[in-house]
Design brief:
CATH class: Alpha Beta
Strand order of the largest sheet: 1-2-3-4-5-7-6
CATH superfamily: Gcn5-related N-acetyltransferase (GNAT)
Bound molecules: coenzyme A
Radius of gyration: 16 Å
Strand content: 35-45%
Structural class: alpha+beta
Number of strands: 7
Low-confidence stretches: none
CATH architecture: 3-Layer(aba) Sandwich
Mean pLDDT: 93
Order of helices and strands: EHHHEEEHEHEE
Number of helices: 5
Shape: globular
Oligomer: single chain
Length: 157
């Protein structure tokens, strides 16, 4: 399948929400609400929302978010919301999505990118390892704590 990696456009809204992404993330991903607009304008938060199109349809999506980081006063880019259409999984689209995203990060001269992933999510963990991500930190399962049961992964460029 020929694929194209593009920025989110509202004409794809119905193919993305809630087909691929729960509706509750709509304003967060698309920055359609005043708080996100303000945070973006102030240069604090930033989200770039991408789609992978194939056969005229949305096959996958991913968000790149700039957030207060892992270092004091630092801002870092995080990959978030990676999702491939259910019936299209296991066909290489996740790899195409991540490769395109990493190319985009390189063109933006990012030095590194981070992500959190549930360590039981074998498909996702393998996808990231295969694309050069390293496990930076393991958050043991403890429901009271943020990122419980997740890996923090990092890719350096
Ligand atoms: C994780 C996800 C994005 C992978 O996308 P995909 O299109 O199925 O992945 P690909 O077909 O490109 O596979 C790429 C690699 O991922 C790994 N992988 C994919 N599916 C796998 C599975 N079921 N079990 C183990 N590894 C798997 C493999 O290493 C694979 O490489 P290989 O085919 O050379 O062995 C997809 O399963 C998905 O959307 N899952 C639900 C949402 C999710 O969990 N997102 C991650 C949040 S952090």
């Amino acid at each position: 399948m020929n694929t194209v990696f593009v920025f989110y456009d509202k004409k794809f809204r119905n193919q993305v929400f809630p087909e691929l992404v729960p509706l509750k993330y709509f304003s967060k991903y698309t920055e359609q609400n005043i708080i996100y607009k303000f945070l973006r304008a102030a240069g604090i938060f930033r989200s770039e929302f991408f789609l992978l199109l194939g056969g005229d349809e949305v096959q996958a999506c991913v968000v790149l978010r700039k957030r207060p980081g892992l270092t004091p006063l630092g801002m870092n880019w995080f990959i978030y919301g990676v999702a491939v259409k259910k019936e299209m999984r296991g066909k290489g689209l996740g790899s195409i999505l991540i490769k395109n995203l990493l190319d985009y990060c390189r063109t933006k001269k990012m030095k590194r990118v981070f992500l959190y992933v549930d360590f039981k999510n074998e498909a996702a963990v393998n996808l990231y390892l295969k694309n050069g991500f390293k496990i930076l930190k393991i958050f043991n399962s403890d429901r009271r704590k943020r990122h419980s049961g997740e890996y923090l992964m990092k890719k350096d460029f």
